[in-house]
Design goal:
The chain has 551 residues and is α/β, with parallel strands linked by helices. Helix content is 33%, strand content 15%. The structure holds thiamine diphosphate and magnesium ion (MG).
Length: 551
């Protein structure tokens, strides 16, 4: 083995990434990405005879899973996470996770291997045009032909990393200074042979200093009585404080981290559809939205009809904010949070909202009962990952106002609210955290990313409990306007009953499986700490395996 230019370049690249906080790498096997794979394997082996940086390496076969695993690591830690693939369709499989990272504002560093540019369009195997393949979903993309020799290799790698990470972190001033520009970046690396292992040295690397764009000044909140605070995805605890010190009702989604405090109206989603809310909405003077709400049409309507609307921390991108928003602030200014909670009388603005939006009693056996048991099993320091569709809405419907000291973290991919990649995202969360991790997913969501259970024999298997709400398909559609279709039509083109035997699937992937059919059994299953990858199937529809709608 000798020193190769590829080896020298990727060592410098990895060393500079690690020195700047990218210490987790998710890698998929492939030959063209071999230089990165060899160097990462060496770094991850933590051999003290090398000066390799400390990295954590996760290997996945399926690039779509790998992308979402990286996303899970990123959302659990708020760190930058790298994902490495070979060339060709492997790269295309990262698109869903890159889209979610873009809309969710998560910093993925996508490293795709490619053949040298002069092979593009020549019919060379596994060679396509990977330049700008992620379009505007990445905030930086560079097509790189590493230099072939000399010190330029390490220097170029360092400069490349500095530039890419500045864009990922939002340090490069965007067109609009109030825009939060955290998001994914892409380096397309053209590797000429040799691609095999080499015997190079790890170069020194140090962190780069970035200057973040200055916050734009934000005016004081209007001193109205009849305000409402909507805390959407990623709002943060400040939303609860703002509502409490003004005596405004707080409608906080589960992933807001603001579902707490004396202003919290737990059943806001159910209440908003009723007549009494209609009257209160008519009196509303001002709506403050913090974070990005994604769950209910009622809240979307409230935002659309607000007489006056301010938005803060709305989403990853300025252009996603509602058209009628008056002010957009990148973050929540300290002045908005100052003050003590208002005592709300029963007849006050807040008191009237609290009256109609009390925490509901959850009875019987259904999606809300499953959600209630899962929520009850998650303690301070634990993490709950919610799948799109019914599960996150069921949790929204039943989640009580938490005490300020209670700190379970509730995470979800709400950037685009896909039902894809959720098993892998939960796996990433479980691999990155010490707390107990539970995921609550619908059956189609689970099946969509069943490949996320595929963990190589040499890979770490985290403790992860996945509770699957098996209601026999995508039942959300039955409650939407599509529900007026014939039962046969609804099943064929929307809900898609599948009859899949989840126990067999779990067995095939080496995950434990337990089916539960009532609340007590579910509660007992959830009371045990998860060991390894464990699936608890909450069976809400029986006999589905026998069901064939054409017989
Ligand atoms: C990748 C992707 N494809 C399709 C959709 C549209 N979609 C939204 S909910 C849903 C059904 C989800 O079914 P399930 O996970 O069983 O949850 P349930 O509706 O039964 O609560 C689908 C297909 C989506 N959000 N994401
Ligand atoms: Mg379902």
């Amino acid at each position: 083995m000798k020193v190769t230019p590829n080896g020298t370049f990727v060592r410098a690249l990895i060393a500079h990434l690690a020195a700047n906080g990218v210490t987790r790498f998710v890698l998929c096997p492939g030959s063209r990405s071999g230089p990165l794979a060899h160097a990462l394997a060496e770094a991850a082996s933590a051999d003290p005879s090398t000066a390799a940086p400390t990295v954590e390496l996760y290997v996945r076969i399926d690039e779509r899973s790998a992308g979402f695993l990286a996303l899970g690591l990123a959302i659990a830690t708020n760190d930058l996470v790298a994902v490495v693939t070979t060339s060709g369709t492997a790269v295309g499989n990262l698109l869903p996770a890159v889209m979610e990272a873009h809309h969710g504002g998560h910093r993925l560093v996508v490293l795709t291997a490619d053949r040298p540019f002069d092979l593009r369009g020549t019919g060379s195997n596994q060679t396509t045009d990977q330049r700008n393949i992620f379009g505007d979903f990445v905030q930086f993309s560079r097509d790189v032909l590493p230099p072939t020799e000399g010190r330029a290799l390490a220097t170029e790698a360092g400069a490349l990393v500095a530039e890419a990470l500045a864009h990922a972190t939002g340090a490069v001033p965007a067109a609009n200074p109030a825009c939060d520009t955290m998001g994914p970046v892409h380096l397309n690396l053209q590797f000429k042979p040799p691609l095999g292992p080499d015997r190079g040295e790890w170069p020194p690397a140090s962190p780069v200093e970035y200057a973040l764009p200055a916050e734009a000044p934000v005016p004081a909140l209007p001193s109205v009585t009849r305000g409402i605070v909507v805390a959407g995805h990623g709002a943060g605890l400040a939303a609860a404080t703002i509502a409490a010190v003004r005596g405004w009702p707080l409608f906080a989604e589960p992933t807001s981290d603001a579902r707490r405090g004396p202003s919290c109206v737990p059943s806001y989603a159910d209440a908003l559809g009723g007549d009494r809310a209609h009257t209160l909405l008519g009196e509303t003077e001002f709506v403050l939205v913090i974070g990005r709400p994604t769950l209910s049409r009622e809240v979307a309507g409230l935002i659309a009809d607000a007489p006056r609307l301010w938005v803060a921390r709305y989403g990853a991108r300025w252009r996603e904010t509602p058209v009628n928003a008056e002010v957009v602030s990148r973050d929540v200014p300290f002045e908005w949070v100052r003050g003590s909670p208002v005592e709300a009388g029963a007849d006050s603005w807040l008191g009237r909202w609290l009256e109609i939006g009390r925490e509901p009693a959850v009875e019987g056996w259904g999606p809300r009962a499953v959600a209630a048991e899962v929520v009850a099993s998650v303690g301070t320091g634990d993490l709950l990952v919610l799948g799109s569709s019914g599960p996150i809405r069921a949790v929204d419907a039943i989640l009580p106002a938490l005490r300020v000291a209670e700190r379970p973290r509730i995470l979800a991919n709400r950037g685009l609210s896909g039902i894809d990649g959720t098993v892998s995202t939960a796996m990433g969360v479980a691999l990155a955290t010490v707390g107990q991790v539970t995921a609550l997913l619908g059956d189609l969501t689970f099946l969509h990313d069943i490949g996320g259970l595929l963990v190589g024999a040499r890979e770490k298997r985290p403790d992860l409990r996945i509770v699957v709400v098996n209601d026999g398909g995508g039942t959300i559609f039955a409650g939407l306007e599509h529900g007026t279709a014939s039962a046969k039509g609804l099943e064929r083109v929307f809900t898609v009953p599948h009859g899949v035997d989840l126990a067999s699937l779990c067995a095939a992937y080496g995950a434990t499986h337990e089916a539960v059919g009532d609340r007590e059994t579910l509660a007992a299953a959830l009371a045990r700490p998860p060991q390894g990858i464990e699936v608890v199937e909450a069976v809400l529809v029986r006999g589905i395996r026998q069901r064939r709608w054409n017989v």
